[in-house]
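Researcher: Here's the sequence for the chain we discussed earlier.
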Amino acid sequence: MKRYLFALAAFFIISFAVSGCQSKATSTGSTGKMITIGITQIVEHPALDSAREGFIKALKDNGYEEGKNVTYIKENAQGDMSTAETIAKKFVDKNVDLIFSIATPTTQAVKKATSTIPIVFTAVTDPVAAGLVKSLDNPGGNVTGTSDMEPINDQLKLIKDLVPDAKRIGIIYNAGEVNSTVQVKIAKDDAAKLGFSVKEATVSNSSEVSQAAQSLVGKVDAIWLPTDNTVASSVAAIIKVTNSAKIPVIAAEKGMVEGGSLATLGISYSDLGYQAGLMAIKILKGEKPANIKVETTKNLQLILNQKEADAIGFKIPDSIMKKAQEVIK
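Model: Thanks. This is the structure I predict for it:
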């Protein structure tokens, strides 16, 4: 009888424990625990902010809700690599479940800090050249994500369509950013094929951006801005110079147009971040980053800034205006 009662008691104890575990798994996700994701961003500007929000939305849409079954530790390096490295070390020390890294420099920092914690990146132009993955199809290691490689040739063609008489193009960028040097090399090759000459103005930090823009006045017919983090965070300084000189600025992404550039034919960083979020979910469910291909987005948007056109006395051709997905007024 005693043996029977002991067995019965053991049964109820085990049943209660299993029930508790199942309840926890339901409330905190399939892993049975609160997931912690570290988010590191190199600097604040609209494109990267949109990518971050897109990532969080993808997880929320798929059942990972902040405060319920996922905790985000959000950090910003404010353009400083030593800070980016400190953030990376912090995430490793906290043993987060996954790191979401926004932009090339921060991704290089977290990859250097850990070879075991899964890393999903976004807003990285060339992850192979940056030393982040072995190849786009077979990343290897603990890193994968979404690339923001822009349709550079199409953007230069947009300059030709908008400014048919343009012969000289200026490019402002940070020569210390791998993503920027990759883009500029492509741009120079494509520009030559389109009959453009290129004048470069390099910077090492945001305080030099205005002076770089000023150095192009009188020497170029239009300016093209790549997806450079230093430049993207200082677009207002560029536009202040170019508006005075009546120089049209064509940018690589929407945030720069919202900041005062004339036009872009580019990708949506919100969509790019969302794609990265879906990749993160695969990893949280057990897939290995090494086996998940690096993704890009093909959804291009023609965005025009009529307010900027008016400011520099520029007439956007009707043929281009009709093709625009968005016109800022």
